[in-house]
Amino acid sequence: MIRLSRYPTDLENYYANLAIKRLKDSVFDNNGSSFFEVACTALNKHKDYFPEKINSLSDEEEKIRQLVLLEFVDIKGIKEKLDADGYKGRDCLKAEINKNVSNNGNLFSDCYAKVIQSQKQKKKLSVRMTQAQNLRVCPYCNHDWITSRGTSIAGVQMDHFYPKSEYPILSLCMYNLIPCCGSCNQIKLNKDPDQDEHGLYLKDTIISPFDKNHFLADEISFTYNPAEDRVMILGATSHVKRMKLEEAYEMNSQEAKELQKKIQMYSQTQVAEIKNVLEKHGQNISTAEIYRSLFGNLFADDAVSNKPIGKMRADLFKKWAGFTF
Length: 325
Ligand SMILES: [Zn+2]
Hints:
Elements: H1 9-25, H2 35-45, H3 52-55, H4 60-68, H5 72-84, H6 87-98, H7 107-117, E1 119-120, E2 123-124, H8 125-132, E3 157-160, E4 177-180, H9 182-188, H10 216-219, E5 221-225, E6 230-234, H11 237-242, H12 245-248, H13 253-265, H14 268-280, H15 287-295, H16 303-306, H17 310-321
Antiparallel strand pairs: 1-2, 3-4, 5-6
Helix pairs in contact: 1-2, 1-4, 1-7, 2-4, 5-6, 13-17
This protein binds zinc ion.
């Protein structure tokens, strides 16, 4: 439920150059052609599925660069066109890309693994990407830290929003990769984000943090059910259900209750009294500052992305206190 933005240009270029190099360096044993050549053939042969910004290019390397740096909206467009053509589209392209690969992988995802694990100044690319987004908490759940220990032990995992098993052509796309926690990655696995839990095709059942048309943090709100003593999430029902978000927050009912107790303890009248007492001692502190020191900076711009359960705490405070600070 944290929105992700475009990576800085230097990181995009670094990623794209690495992806191109890996595709060129990977050569099939049987016929000696490189993964790069196979990828270019797929792009040229199936033009209908790819946007004009790729098709209009004549330089093969530029085509691949454009593909791996496509924005989410274009990636989604390719996915939907492939789905609409079913066997002719998605399955055909998948089979074609995988035909020369003997193991369980596919050419793009083999290269993806090498790209994402690569290190610069001993820092893994996945760590650099997470830091570039200023991201400390999983954007899918806002529940778990995705911090790293040192430079190479990454707490973050990369989820392919559109699964690499079904859409190998999208598996190297930088904006199809969601830096997330291990639990969310495991829960999502190869789920199609456009299907509900019964396999019914409904668009946007899982929402990408790169999707500019959705902002999950605005679409859901947390509440607390005292009768069942559990935290509940309203809105974006399919996303919440498919990503098991309420299950993630089962352990947080205690925090919800503590917050409620604290709000009751520090009523607006009492905060005004604290302010008066401080003023008498020559300390001119604003009401908002007093609230921040009592409850933490719940409504700061980065409160959700930088602290686990930040969204839950902010929603519950607003609900129970009736205001923000
Ligand atoms: Zn998560």
